[in-house]
Structure formats: C-alpha cells, structure tokens
Design brief:
Rossmann fold; 7 helices; alpha/beta; six-stranded mixed beta sheet; about 25% strand; single chain; globular
C-alpha cells in the first residue's frame, strides 16, 4: 500500500463511502464492509474522487479513446473523471447509458458522446460481474471495443467459481481491470491501526470465506 492508497482509504472513510457493519451484497453475501461511491455527493468530494480515478487510469497503462459510466453511479464517475483527465493532458469524450431505452426525442440507450473506438468503463466496485456483461454487450453492439475497467475497490472475492469476479471478467471478455485500492491495501490499513482491530478480524474472516 502506497501513500496515495492510504489517503484514498481515509478519504473514503471520511465521506462514509467506506463503512463497516453488516451489509447484504447483490450476491447475497453478508459483508462486514461496504463501498458506495454515491456518498461522494458534494462538488469537492467528487472532484477529488475523479483525481484518484484519473491517476488509477494513468497507472493502469490501459489504452483507451473514451470513457463510459454505467448507470447510475458510473454517470458521475465518467463525467468528473473526463474533467480530471484534462489535467493529465487528455481531453476525452464520455458517455453513459439509460436503464431503459428511450423511444422519443433523441432516443437510444446511451447519452453523451457516441460510443466509438476503445471504451474504458468506470464503476465503483465489481461484485458478481453481471452488470459488466451488460455494459460490454452494449459497447460491442455499438461497434466499439471495451478497453478495460477501472474501479475504486477490488474486493478480491470469488465469482461463480474459484476465480475472483474480476479474473472471470478478464477471461470472459479479454479485458483488464484496474483499481484504486484492493482488499490487500484495506487489510494492511486496518492492521496498522489498533482502533481498527475489530474490523480487521471481521474482514479477514470474510475474506477467508469468499476470497479468491
């Protein structure tokens, strides 16, 4: 865990985007921690979050032409990160989707720039990976290419088999997944703080049960 990852964890805790307790995930698993990018709901917080995404994108080395944010949380992520990337010397287009197709006005399933070239997907976490399948299909139906995915937190959990959900996505779609932090960084952060030992034990136990 490097310093900027530690700062990101503290940033997420400050805004309650990272919380500890008991949470039921989409997969049905009961998790002792939860990450919700929707909690970065003020301008300054969203701007700072976008800077973390921009750095993760740059560090990933993934080649891309534009950004895509799956509805709903990905919408703000794609728009704000496109702004942050300008400071990294990139002026890229972005798009996002509707949950349902619109049959009037401009119509269609997507808003923003037309999907074209290598499309980088932004989201907060990946659990089962079913939403990723839908997004990849949407991009390919537009004759564009999914370039990869960047998320905030890699939970490192098994998918439908022994591989992690992220490894399953890599195998299924042939695309890479990068993250700002991983479960390893979170565990290291918790282990360094005596006040967090209770959370450390519960997260370690959860990982023993569901980790890839």
């Amino acid at each position: 865990m490097d310093e900027h990852q530690k700062q990101f964890i503290e940033f997420a805790l400050q805004h309650r985007a990272l919380r500890f307790g008991e949470f039921v995930l989409k997969s049905g698993r009961r998790s002792p921690y939860f990450f919700d990018a929707g909690m970065f709901n003020h301008g300054a917080a969203l701007a700072k979050l976008a800077q973390y995404y921009a750095r993760a994108i740059a560090d990933s080395g993934i080649a891309y032409d534009m950004l895509f944010g799956p509805a709903y949380k990905g919408i703000a992520l794609a728009a704000s990160t496109a702004v942050a990337l300008v400071e990294h010397g990139r002026d890229v287009a972005f798009a996002f989707n509707r949950k349902e197709a619109k049959d009037h006005g401009e119509g269609g399933r997507t808003l923003g720039a037309p999907l074209a070239g290598a499309v980088l997907i932004l989201d907060d976490v990946i659990s089962a990976g079913t939403s990723v399948d839908e997004t990849v299909l949407l991009i390919r139906q537009a004759d564009a290419v999914p370039a990869g995915i960047v998320i905030a937190l890699d939970r490192g959990e098994r998918g439908s088999g022994q591989l992690s959900a992220i490894e399953e996505i890599r195998e299924r779609h042939g695309i890479d997944v990068a993250s700002i932090i991983s479960i390893d960084a979170l565990l290291q952060y918790l282990s360094d703080l005596p006040a967090m030992q209770g959370h450390l034990a519960s997260v370690q136990k959860y990982r023993e049960s569901y980790g890839a």
